[in-house]
Design a protein that fits this description.
By secondary structure, the protein is mainly beta. Helix content is 0%, strand content 58%. The chain contains no helices and 6 strands. The chain has strands at residues 2-8, 17-24, 29-39, 48-56, 60-67, 74-84. The strands form 2 sheets. Strands 1-6-3 form a 3-stranded antiparallel beta sheet, with no helix packed on it. The protein has a 3-stranded antiparallel beta sheet with strand order 2-5-4, with no helix packed on it. Strand 4 (48-56) and strand 5 (60-67) form a beta hairpin. It is rod-shaped and about 70 Å long. The termini are far apart.
Length: 93
């Protein structure tokens, strides 16, 4: 499993803080799944929102989150679940 962590900044100018996080499989592996989670910077978890978590082009998992907590930043962690590609041989009698 591969992952990336991004900071979700506090809101500014009346707009929520926004963050993108992209996790990618290494060469020789294929994406089999993924996901994301948000960690609030305070006890106000209701002010943080994971807006999207989905596969994107190639072997990548993309996530987007927002933050309306005016006093704290949070974190967004995306992860890609990858599998090694191996050759499969068939034998006949």
């Amino acid at each position: 499993m591969r992952g990336q962590v991004s900071t979700i900044p506090a809101p500014s100018g009346g707009y929520p803080g926004r963050a993108v996080s992209v996790a990618e499989c290494p060469d020789g592996e294929v994406l089999t799944g993924g996901g994301a989670n948000v960690t609030a910077g305070s006890s106000r978890a209701d002010l943080y929102q994971l807006t999207s978590s989905q596969p994107i082009s190639g072997q990548k998992w993309w996530a987007f989150a927002t933050n309306m907590d005016s006093g704290n930043s949070g974190t967004l962690h995306s992860y890609a679940i990858c599998a090694k590609v191996i050759s499969v041989h068939t034998f006949s009698n």
